[in-house]
């Protein structure tokens, strides 16, 4: 027993905040460190114009407290970043969480001591905290990916990254703005920036599929209908493959079992309804290339219908499998390329040669800019964990343990790193689900586990190497049955040069939850529990 906390939590986003709350409920002393100056994680950092969640707001919120979910009122079908950040702040205030969070502080190092069965955590504020348990609530998309483009540091104008957006207002009026990237962040930001920028140049390496969000204000009576039995609604969502979307069930039929007209009608219906559940139109869209091609060509036709210049439309048209890079949802993304003040530059064919003080050079042409925005994504799922010097049993580093890609048991634990838990770690459903649903499930599992150890007088828990190997094989075997590994996505780490190509998240939320339950029922099967 130490004088310090029982649990150190890294991060005060939705995962860290719920960990604090849950620890308190179980009588565990917890202390969190957060690099930002406020709570909210992803929603604290990603303040770029147009930032919005792609899971509906009535679902993308905590379910753990009935009063909380009854008193909070979401205003739109998909909540915008400022509203989600207000919600995160409301939760922090309501449960008085701030008193256990040290803000503006990064954890640099964490070292396991087998003799005392404790972690010593070192921060950039020079503090050293000792605790038996370490919970990494560091988020899956929290380390930005800044490409190593020659001359980037020489750019003389304003330079921003969507994943680390300034807290002050950014003014695009009259400016020549460039955006590198066309993933979810860019797809949301581009239409908003184009509204006020003098000129917007989009540097696109790979065209993206995007489906309209069809965002709209929520009606008072639909909110009331959900709230009338919120618990049942949440439970229905937890039983969905991705932990959300029970209002829009997946159609399990093969696209080849219906007529061409019926297939089109179903895709059209989902296109008009909007949102990522477009991919649930047929059961085989994520499994079979020919089936996938039917949905992909449907979206390609929509691009051709929307974009007036056929040459620009062709450049905006993706050819890869739809859904293997995360599907974007948008408001007027493709139509934005019809504006006179927007130019699309293909840097897939002619890669960016350099950034100069005046702009971006590609294909021998210099595009002059006053502002450059990197919408170049994240070192996803492992980036933040590996930037911290984590040393487990016998001083082994997590960096070495994961040199050939992340290896975990259940996405919660790593062999050789006792009493270290990850919330939504690689090998868990995480980014392929409603993150808040996954976060709640993980935080409850982790804190119940700590509580169990404490009540049974055990000092440590650690995944066995065998259970971990089996789990890694299981995660890969499921991904390999799908089309997900067929293109260069961040799910595979393929967006970061040099990163090992491994499919990191696990597909299928309900069976995963069942496995986690079974592991506990079988007395923490796959773990070694130390006295
Ligand atoms: O990042 P991304 P993101 N030269 O990695 C390009 C979540 N999210 O921030 O495809 C030129 O998807 C890269 O090109 P390519 C969501 O899970 C959710 O947009 O690799 N281009 C790509 O176009 C999402 O999937 C929401 O060829 C370069 C772009 O940059 C995840 O976050 C909103 C380049 C990066 O796209 C990440 O999204 C926003 C280079 N050197 C984000 N390097 C919602 O909830 C990279 N690119 C709606």
How does this structure look, described?
There is one protein chain. With 531 residues, the protein is of the alpha/beta class. The protein has two domains: 7-143 and 379-530, FAD/NAD(P)-binding domain, CATH 3.50.50.60; 176-374, no CATH class. It is built from 16 helices and 21 strands. The strands form six sheets. It has a five-stranded parallel β-sheet with strand order 3-2-1-7-19, with helices on one face. A hairpin with a 3-residue loop joins strand 14 (352-355) and strand 15. Helix 1 packs parallel to helix 14 and helix 14 (435-455) runs parallel beside helix 16. It is globular. The mean pLDDT is 97. The protein binds 3-acetylpyridine adenine dinucleotide (N01). 3-acetylpyridine adenine dinucleotide binds at residues 52-54, 141, 147, 149, 162-163, 180-186, 188, 205-206, 326, 329, 347, 352, 375-378, 431, 488, 490, 495.
User: What is the approximate shape?
Assistant: globular
Q: Helix/strand-derived class?
A: alpha/beta
Task: State mean pLDDT (0 to 100 scale).
Answer: 97
Number of helices: 16
Major pleated sheet: 5 strands, parallel
Helix content: 25-40%
Radius of gyration: 23 Å
> Spatial order of the strands in the main sheet?
3-2-1-7-19
Strand content: 15-25%
The count of strands amounts to 21
Number of domains: 2
How far from one another are the termini?
14 Å
Output the CATH homologous superfamily of the largest domain.
Answer: FAD/NAD(P)-binding domain
The distinct bound ligands, ions and cofactors come out as: 3-acetylpyridine adenine dinucleotide
CATH class category label of the largest domain: Alpha Beta
């Amino acid at each position: 027993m130490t004088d310090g906390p029982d649990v150190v939590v890294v991060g005060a986003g939705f995962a860290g905040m719920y960990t604090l709350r849950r620890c308190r409920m179980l009588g565990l002393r917890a202390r969190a460190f957060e690099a930002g100056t406020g709570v909210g994680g992803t929603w604290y950092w990603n303040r770029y114009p147009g930032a919005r969640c792609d899971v509906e707001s009535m679902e993308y919120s905590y379910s753990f407290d009935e009063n909380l979910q009854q008193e909070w009122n979401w205003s739109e079908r998909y909540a915008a970043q400022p509203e989600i950040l207000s919600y995160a702040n409301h939760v922090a205030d309501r449960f008085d969480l701030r008193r256990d969070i040290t803000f503006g502080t990064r954890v640099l190092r964490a070292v396991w001591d087998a003799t005392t069965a404790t972690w010593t955590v070192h921060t950039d504020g020079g503090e050293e905290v000792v605790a038996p348990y370490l919970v990494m609530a560091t988020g899956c998309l929290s380390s930005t990916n800044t490409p190593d483009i020659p001359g980037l540091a020489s750019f003389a104008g304003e330079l921003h990254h969507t994943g680390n957006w300034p807290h002050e207002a950014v003014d695009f009026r009259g400016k020549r703005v460039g955006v590198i990237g066309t993933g979810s962040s860019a797809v949301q930001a581009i239409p908003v920036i184009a509204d006020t920028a003098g000129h917007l140049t989009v540097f696109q390496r790979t065209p993206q599929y995007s489906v309209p969000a069809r965002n709209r204000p929520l009606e008072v009576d639909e909110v009331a209908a959900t709230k009338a039995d919120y618990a049942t609604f949440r439970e229905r969502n937890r039983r969905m493959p991705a932990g959300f979307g029970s209002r829009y069930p997946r159609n399990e039929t093969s696209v080849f079992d219906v007529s061409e007209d019926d297939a089109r009608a179903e895709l059209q219906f989902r296109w008009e309804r909007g949102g990522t559940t477009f991919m649930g139109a047929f059961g085989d869209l994520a499994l079979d290339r020919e089936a996938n091609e039917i949905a992909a060509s449907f979206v390609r036709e929509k691009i051709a219908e929307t974009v007036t210049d056929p040459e620009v439309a062709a450049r905006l048209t993706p050819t890869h499998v739809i859904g293997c890079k995360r599907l974007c949802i948008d408001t007027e993304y493709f139509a934005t390329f019809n504006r006179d003040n927007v130019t699309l530059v293909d840097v897939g064919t002619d890669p960016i040669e350099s950034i100069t003080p005046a702009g971006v050079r590609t294909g021998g042409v210099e595009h002059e800019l006053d502002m450059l925005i990197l919408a170049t994504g994240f070192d996803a799922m492992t980036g933040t964990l590996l930037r911290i010097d984590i040393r487990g049993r016998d001083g082994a580093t997590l960096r070495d343990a994961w040199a050939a890609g992340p290896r975990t048991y259940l996405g919660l634990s790593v062999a050789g790193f006792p009493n270290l838990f990850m919330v939504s770690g690689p090998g868990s459903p995480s980014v392929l689900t409603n993150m808040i649903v996954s976060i709640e499930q993980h935080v409850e599992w982790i804190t119940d586990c700590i509580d169990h150890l404490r009540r049974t007088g055990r000092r440590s828990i650690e995944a066995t190497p065998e259970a971990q190997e089996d789990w890694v094989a299981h995660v890969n075997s499921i991904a390999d049955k799908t089309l997900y590994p067929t293109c260069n996505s961040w799910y595979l780490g393929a967006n970061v040069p040099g990163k090992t190509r491994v499919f990191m998240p696990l597909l299928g939320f309900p069976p995963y939850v069942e496995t986690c339950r079974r592991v506990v029922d079988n007395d923490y099967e796959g773990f070694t529990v130390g006295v």
